[in-house]
Write a structure and sequence with these properties.
The complex is a heterodimer of chains A (413) and B (283).
Chain A (H helix, E strand, L loop, with lengths): L4 E13 L8 H12 L10 E13 L3 E5 L6 H8 L7 E7 L2 E4 L12 H12 L3 H15 L14 H13 L5 E4 L8 H16 L3 E5 L3 H7 L2 E6 L2 E7 H12 L4 H6 L4 E8 L9 E3 L4 E9 L3 E12 L4 E6 L8 E3 L3 E7 L7 E11 L7 E12 L12 H4 L16
Parallel strand pairs in A: 3-7, 3-8, 5-6, 6-7, 11-18
Antiparallel strand pairs in A: 1-2, 1-4, 8-9, 10-12, 12-16, 13-14, 13-15, 13-17, 17-18
Chain B lengths: L7 E5 L9 H6 L1 H15 L8 H21 L9 H23 L1 H4 L1 H4 L8 H30 L13 H25 L4 H14 L14 H7 L1 H14 L6 H32 L1
GO molecular function (chain B): ABC-type transporter activity
Organism (chain B): Bradyrhizobium niftali
Membrane topology (chain B): Multi-pass membrane protein
Chain lengths: 413, 283
Amino acid sequence: MQDHLAIEVRGLSKRYRRGAIGMSSLREEVELFLARRRDQRPRRASREFYALKDVTFSVPAGSVCGIIGRNGSGKTTLLKVLTSITEPEEGEATLRGRVGSLLEVGAGFHPELDGIENIYLNGAILGMSKSEITSKLDRIIQFADIGDVMETPVKRYSSGMYVRLAFAIAAHLEPDILLVDEVLAVGDADFQRKSLAKMKDAAGEGRTVLFVSHNMAMVRQLCDIAVYLEAGHLKQIGASSSVIDAYLLGSTPRSTQGERTGTDELWGELRILEPSSETACDHLKFGGDYDFVLRLGASQPFRRGVAEISIFDQEGARISSLESLAEGVDQFDFTQPVEIVFNVRSLGLLPGTYIAGFSLFAWGEEEPRLSVEACLSFEVVAATVNDAYWPYLREYHGIVRLSHSANLRVPGS
Amino acid sequence: MTGSAKRITIIKRRSGWFDLDLRRAWEHRDLLFLFALRDIKVRHKQTLLGPGWLILQPLVWTAVFTVTISGVAGVSTANQPAPLFYLSGLIVWSYFSQVIFATSLVFIENEHLFSKIYFPRIVVPLSSLISTGVALLIQFVVVLVFLIAFHWMGKSDGLSWRIVGFPLVVLHLAAASLATGLILGASTAKYRDLGFMTSFLVQVSMFVTPVLYPFSAIPEQYRVMASLANPLAAIVEESRWCLLGESMLTPGQVLASLLTTAIALACGVVLYQRVERTVMDTI
């Protein structure tokens, strides 16, 4: 027995019927049966596909493992099999320890019941006993931090409050193995950070977390190892940062120029970090300090690189650009992945939604070798500058605040 | 956290016919009561009479039957005051119909929950046995009040020692209701057209079960057969045996009903646990 492995998956396969999601009626079933009797090919057999095919991997206890892959690559199916929601067709998985799962926050909340009642109900659905919930009740309410609404039916909660309460319950489940789907995408930035910290704590205490996400920055930050699924097959498993690099190489759209020359295999990934904590964020404070980090990699040596980040508003108008060459990064050569950090100080974009993309040029060429137009969307939230009463807002103040200050003087004196 | 004390979960395709995960079901016993509590609370939120409906419904039916079936049509009530006769049968039948309605929709109504989190699915039907049981308890008290009132008016023998047998009748009733519910629930999850069958079945059960007429109206040689075919028939009679004292019930009929109940329950559990393994792929 390999006790140090929390999760062992051996040869797991699962088939689905394509298109036939939804129940068959008895009549259809009878028709199919008659068709088989007449020795015809059953119509539906051809529509079957493997959502998981012969997937084998293991996760050591105490680690955080990310599951990445494109939509339909089998990530969620894997999670549903591991949580017993559905059965695998072949293969086997062994989970050592108490298993908790969080495929959706607040599944099992009843809108008519109040906060406390839902804590008990949801906690019990997740697998806690009543006495366990009672002992954790105060901590759950404190973690959720939604004020004095525990006696109110949850149907009157805002969606943010709903998510906070739901995650607070799940975070206090304290299982040995926690299986999480992309649930942190909801909730505001502060709460996301708190939830991530809670998940990291979980791993620190010898617990194991398996974590499905599309957010590469989050996986890189949170996970020690990553599993890369492609069309139901296991493509790669290993240290999260190298698996993510491989995934990005396989999925980042390349520029036409790059493809035409056929020599360079390039990829890039853009993240926005808070300089102090190095945490990735997509809710930025107006006037705050942020680092835009562009990570670039190539399978062939790349010479004399120049990088540019473009920021667009929601209508697609270019608002601003961040330039490596103009801001002090000389033309650079690389083969190993490199990161170019653009330090944005006192963010001047007014509150709203923005989309960022990037381009990589070889110096002296007009066309970019790699260009990704919209790879990151972020939100700027309102905040005041200089402790002023008035916040800057898009409706009244335009799109950008120019870096400036103001003073009063009387001419001629 | 020691390695040896850790629980190990093995996930693979199960193939057994009777492969119940009783350990996990036992661990979720608190959930059983919380679901029951939820159902009770939610059922009566934002209603005018709240639990009053539980009392009103059988009383109205009893009044209607007393006037029409007994009064106008003149159907026998086995020498019992008509209200007592109908009430003692109605509470049994309404428990049965409510449980099978709730259980037949288990997979469809909980689709969202079941596709997001696993817990032993049998917990949901079991919890509806409890929440409907609370309704039955309230109705049972109403019957007791009627019994005492009719005794006071000198029209009935009143309570007898037989009433202590009523909990056993409830167990028998719960088993039969669960069995029917599980079979219907498993089938409607796979073939939605069978959903229409439930309400049809409930209506039919009202007439093929001696709720509106005495069991003694069935010719004696067919009574065991009737109990075998419709276990509920004997259960209604068991209820009258406990509450009203007078009844044509024989041990043979009870055994026949228990036999069918047991077989149906076994079938129901097997079907239900086979469906629950993969139903979320197709629902």
